Amino acid sequence: MAETLIQIGVVGCADIARKVSRAISLAPNAALCGVASRSHDKAAAFAAANGFPLSAKVYGSYEALLEDPTVDAVYIPLPTSLHLHWAVLAAQNNKHLLLEKPVALDVAQFDRILEACESSGVQFMDNTMWVHNPRTAAMAHFLNDAQRFGNLKSVRTCFTFGADPDYLKNNIRVKPDLDGLGSLGDQGWYCIRAILLAANYELPKTVVASYEPVLNKDGVILDCGASLYWEDGKVATFHCSFLANLTMDITAIGTRGTLHVHDFVVPYNEKEASFLAGTDTSFNDLVTGWAKQPNKHTVTTHLPQEALLVREFARLVAQIKFKNSKPDKKWPTISRKTQLVLDAVKASIQRGFEPVQIQE
Q1: How far, in Å, are 104, 218, 251, 315 from residue 144 at the CA level?
Q2: Which residues, by range, are in coiled-coil regions (predicted)?
Q3: Would you give the DSSP letter of residue 269?
């Protein structure tokens, strides 16, 4: 059985890599085969602290892991400014690619990553975990049900948390040379993906950034938002921030129904997640309460959402490795659409909050 498991190596010892290393260990069709850092000692310490199996290899350079022919796939949690170089190199070494979000500094960089993946015939997926939770599939089923939800009219999403002073000074997400997209790239990515999910991944026509974002002294976004408009009248708004209390909400409103989620990025509980869905909700006669209220839907899972992501990634890699299948294009396409909207928000900010048209 072990030889049929997809062997996944971790390129870098970022904090998020702790969570993903656990997920690889929990996924039934994947194996944690190694970790690389710029120093052998750091990689060894990371492996020891995060439950890597004794069989896992430790590499003192990223190149050494990427050049190892026993490694099927890699997870890259490096700062966004490094994605282009290392993701392309991974693909050129025939490594299937699980890449941390945001996938690139802009869509032009991401297209170069995709070109390298397509040239080598390797699978690409980004590390947006919540979309692999079974709750998300249940939410999408409701949103696409014409009888219960109707046609989408508007979406509001937010992801905020109050970062401490050390984070705001030293975290890579506030450093222009590392993760220069700041809160927009980190939390905004999730908000945009939620909006696209509600819109069945139809791109908006126009994006307008909200006035006025909060930037740090180096020009990195700490707090921002935007409005998105579709030609058929749909509208969406989002807010992302390092400067407000922890909140991660989706509200999607249709002609017949409404969906509410209050923990969409990280569920309150690892093994179960809920959402509220209401159809034809209404007041009572005296308008002192609701005659018909939304219903709570709870979905359970035996694996956490990050392990489900790894399981899906490893399944697609196995299809290529053992059945000579072609890489699946669903996930790269969704990643690219998310990046396109993110780029448009950034462009609108830079242009003084002018409307920006999205061109695929």
Answers
A1: 30, 43, 15, 26
A2: none
A3: B
Which residue, 65, 47, 67, is CA-closest to 55?
47
Q: How many Cα atoms are found within 13 Å in the side-chain-facing hemisphere of 284?
A: 5
Measured in degrees and rounded to the nearest 5, phi and psi for residue 205 equal -85, -40
d(CA 188, CA 60): 34
CATH topology classification for 131-304+339-357: Dihydrodipicolinate Reductase; domain 2 (3.30.360)
Q: Which one from 101, 234, 337, 346 is the annotated catalytic residue?
A: 101
With a CB cutoff of 8 Å and minimum separation 6, the contacts of 232 are none
Contact 351, 337 (CB under 8 A): no
Sign (positive/negative) of CA torsion 99, 335, 151, 238?
positive
Average the pLDDT over 91-119 and give the result: 98
How confident is residue 40, by pLDDT bands cut at 50, 70 and 90? very high
Q: Per the structure block, which two tokens stand in for 151?
A: 């046609």
CA distance 78 to 192: 21
Are 71 and 146 spatial neighbours (Cβ–Cβ below 8 Å)?
no
Rounded to two decimals, the pTM is 0.96
The question of whether 296 is a catalytic residue gets the answer no
Name the one residue in this structure whose structure tokens are 């749909």: 234
* Omega cis (within 30) before 176: no
Instruction: Tell me the pairing of strands 235-241 and 272-279.
Output: unpaired
pLDDT tens readout for residues 223-238: 999 999 999 999 999 9
DSSP assignments along 26-68, one per residue: H-TTEEEEEEE-SSHHHHHHHHHHTT--TT-EEESSHHHHHT-
The Cα 156–Cα 277 span in angstroms is 15
All structural domains of the chain with their residue ranges: 2-128, 131-304+339-357
